[in-house]
């Protein structure tokens, strides 16, 4: 009997989780819309924080499209604005790509620094300016941050104190995983909260999570099995003021 009961309970809870996953993912994806009129420049629209956000994409590189992880993080920030109150907080986004997450964080009232590789910065700056001008408490900044490169010079430890580090879909088959880890570590102070959305694709990426756990306390906040995405909260390990 016990065995049957446990099996049924497990089946029901898995079913419930599956159902809930599909429902939330549908809700998240419904925030995206495409223009009804064909225009010369291609853009995609998103609804967050009561605003219509227009994102121009470029088709030639990774960071040039909005990835599902970014939508998951935007939705999380909007729907958990009480628990994770980022108003007036110092927030940095790494691998910002088209800038959607940084835009949403700015619209929510944070002091945002959006960063990515130099070649992404033009489009990133364009999207951020267009969607935040006259709409934000603190105008966001856009800066180059190549993972692991000249961090002491571009972001000296003594001059920054980020409350939050945001990262959406920064782990995939690229050769800079160790540099990415170094960057998280460099930017993270004792009280910094990392909100990191991870899309699982390959075995190598699970190894990154293991490496990450050596430096940070990692907590899974939510999971979206149908997208192979998990949302993590992390803080530096062995903090004095935990
Ligand atoms: C898969 S995209 C995700 C973009 C955006 N966060 C999103 O979710 O839509 C990965 C991002 O990481 C950036 N990136 C890749 N390697 C990098 C590096 N070595 N230093 C800094 N950024 C890097 C890419 O330019 C790109 O914007």
UniProtKB/TrEMBL annotation:
This protein's record includes keyword S-adenosyl-L-methionine: yes
Keyword annotations of the record: Methyltransferase, S-adenosyl-L-methionine, Transferase
Pfam family, one: Methyltransf_16
Transferase found in the keyword field: yes
InterPro entries, per the entry: Methyltransf_16 (IPR019410), SAM-dependent_MTases_sf (IPR029063)
Gene Ontology BP terms: methylation
Domain of life of the source: Eukaryota
GO function term, MF aspect, one: methyltransferase activity
PANTHER family in alphabetical order: HEPATOCELLULAR CARCINOMA-ASSOCIATED ANTIGEN (PTHR14614), METHYLTRANSFERASE-LIKE PROTEIN 21E PSEUDOGENE-RELATED (PTHR14614:SF1)
Protein name as annotated: Methyltransferase like 21E, pseudo
């Amino acid at each position: 009997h016990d065995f049957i009961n446990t099996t049924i309970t497990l089946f029901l809870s898995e079913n419930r989780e599956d159902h809930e996953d599909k429902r939330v993912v549908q809700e998240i994806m419904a925030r995206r819309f495409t223009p009804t009129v064909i225009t010369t420049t291609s853009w995609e629209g998103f609804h967050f924080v009561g605003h219509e956000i227009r994102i121009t994409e470029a088709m030639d590189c990774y960071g040039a499209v909005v990835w599902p992880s970014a939508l998951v993080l935007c939705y999380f920030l909007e729907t958990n604005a009480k628990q994770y109150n980022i108003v007036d907080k110092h927030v940095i986004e790494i691998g910002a790509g088209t800038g959607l997450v940084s835009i949403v964080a700015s619209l929510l009232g944070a002091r945002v620094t959006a960063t990515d590789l130099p070649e992404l910065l033009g489009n990133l700056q364009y999207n951020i300016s267009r969607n935040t001008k006259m709409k934000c408490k603190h105008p966001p900044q856009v800066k180059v941050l190549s993972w692991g490169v000249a961090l002491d010079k571009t972001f000296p430890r003594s001059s920054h104190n980020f409350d939050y580090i945001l990262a959406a879909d920064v782990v995939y088959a690229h050769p800079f995983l160790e540099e990415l880890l170094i960057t998280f570590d460099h930017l993270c102070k004792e009280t910094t909260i990392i909100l990191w959305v991870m899309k699982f694709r390959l075995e190598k990426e699970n190894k990154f999570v293991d490496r990450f756990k050596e430096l940070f306390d990692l907590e899974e906040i939510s999971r979206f099995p149908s997208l192979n995405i998990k949302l993590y909260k992390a803080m530096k390990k062995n903090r004095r003021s935990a």
